[in-house]
Design goal:
Layout: H1 8-26, H2 33-37, H3 41-61, H4 66-89, H5 107-116, H6 121-133, H7 137-141, H8 145-152, H9 165-185, H10 190-215, H11 219-224, H12 226-234, E1 240-244, H13 265-270, H14 282-286, E2 292-296, E3 299-300, H15 301-322
Antiparallel strand pairs: 1-2, 2-3
Helix pairs in contact: 1-3, 1-15, 3-4, 3-15, 4-8, 5-9, 5-10, 8-10
The chain binds iron/sulfur cluster (2 copies).
One iron/sulfur cluster binds near residues 220 and 221.
Amino acid sequence: MTRTHPAPQLVAFALTAATLTLVHRVVHPPMLLAERYLAGAGWVQILVIASYAAWLTTKLLEPKGSARWRRRVWLLFSVVFFAQLFLGLAGFEGLLMTGELHLPVPAVILAGPIYRGTGLFMPVLFTVTALLVGPAWCSHLCYFGAWDDLACRLRRRPQALPSKTWAVRLGITIAVVAVAVILRIAGASTMGAAASGLAFGFVGVAVILLWSRRSGVMAHCVAYCPMGLVANLLGKLSPFRIRIKDDCTLCGACGQVCRYDALSKGDLQRQRPGLTCSLCGDCIGACPNGQLEYRFGGLRGTRARTLFIVLAASLHAVFLALARV
Ligand code: SF4
Ligand code: SF4
């Protein structure tokens, strides 16, 4: 007897609708924007966003267009995120999460709770996404990374970053934690801590404009941002992996599209991408011999990719509806 599977689009619709319904029923004041402006309209927003998740699943499943759609919707999410922030600051306070301002700098997800000693919502959210889709936060869900992606594509092909880049990012991550601890012990004011976070964010923008644009690699995400390293390490808790099959000819075509510096010749010989892989999936369609695939434990190929895309599209849709500062 053949086992039938529900359509991936249906699963993405159901996952998104169920998550948003839970948030809508449990959290007060309302998290959904439509509900904030018109009582009852939150249910319509849930329907629209869940339909969007189903549509996006179709687009991301297309073998050829997948990479393009991922980048488009990722950028869309970031534009919506920052537009809400700027409009919120301009006086439309309903567009802010709580009315209290938080810094939209990814490193603050790590440093903020260390400095404050409270506020674990974002670290928990980050960990849950890592459990579900590995390091895909950094290729589908981050409001900052989408701009790094845009900048690096100004150069047609990525260049390999220096081999000790991992040590730079490790050093920056340790420094960020150390500064947060020092600010806490020293009893630094919120303004002082916010200024440090902002300065870190502005240096990150400079890295995007100077290093990513020139190298064609997402240097901000691969070499500077501590959350990229945390995502790569926490992502190991998820069974999702990209793997290179035995008949890889080492032609390097996949390395020409990897913006995360994760497909060097050594990585190809080891038949696994480097630590910086974000599971973006762009390399899969680039291999002329079909030698790259998603894996999820014993699940391989199309099935593992479909599972990953359903989860990534659902999370993206939920973030689009809920993520704001
Ligand atoms: S590395 Fe940092 S900025 Fe880049 S996508 Fe990941 S969390 Fe966002
Ligand atoms: S190895 Fe493939 S899936 Fe991983 S970051 Fe590079 S292109 Fe994306």
